Amino acid sequence: MRVADLMTPNPETLGPEATLEEAAKRILEKRYGSFPVVDQEGRLLGILQVEDLLPRPENVPFSDVEALQLFGEWVDEKVLEEIYRRYQKTPVKAVMRTEIPRVRLEDPAGKALEILVKSDVRHLPVVDPKGKLLGILTRSDFLKLFLRRV
């Protein structure tokens, strides 16, 4: 079985200039865990996952203290209004993941599954040789396959 047999073709995407507010609204509206980010020609630039929109604990340099960090800046957990202001003005390209694995149509499905279970990427882009986004593969696609085979 090949990647082409499992992927969702022509996935919905975001442009790099979309704001994080727009991205968050679409994620919630569509109930997606991420969106691929593409340029005007449809070439994959990166991926924005829900996790990228949330503060995460990080170690403060030279200490054992953990604090929340969002978009590379320390965030006071009491300042939710500031997070919203950042969402309104920050473009997707500022926080999207660019170093992400990708697969091709002809790749074996097993290769894609291995990437999904070994990496922190939950949505695996499928691209052509020029980097144009053709589809997306998720962990759920494999669950559906396993259930269909039973």
Automatic annotation (TrEMBL):
Q: Which Pfam families match?
A: CBS (PF00571)
Q: Does the keyword Coiled coil apply?
A: no
PANTHER family attached here? CBS DOMAIN-CONTAINING PROTEIN, CBS DOMAIN-CONTAINING PROTEIN CBSX3, MITOCHONDRIAL
Coiled coil, from the record: none
**Protein's UniProt keywords contain Translocase:** no
Write down the InterPro entries for this protein, in alphabetical order. CBS_dom, CBS_dom_sf, Diverse_CBS-Domain
Q: What is this protein called?
A: HPP family protein
Superkingdom field: Bacteria
SMART domains per UniProt: CBS
Describe the location of the CBS domain by residue ranges.
Answer: 7-65, 96-150
Question: What are the record keywords, sorted?
Answer: CBS domain
